[in-house]
Amino acid sequence: NYDVNVFSGEKVIFSGEGLQIGERILWNSTWHLAAIDQLERRAVLAKAKIGWNDAGGAWQEVNTHSSAIIGLCDVISHYGNEMNADDKSRVEKQISNGCAYLAACQDKARELGYGDGPLSHDIIGHEEHILPADTSKAVVAWAKAAKIAKDKDQKKEYLRRAELSMKWLLFNAKPINSK
Question: Measuring CA to CA, which residue among 150, 55, 134, 149 is closest to residue 101?
Answer without folding.
Answer: 134
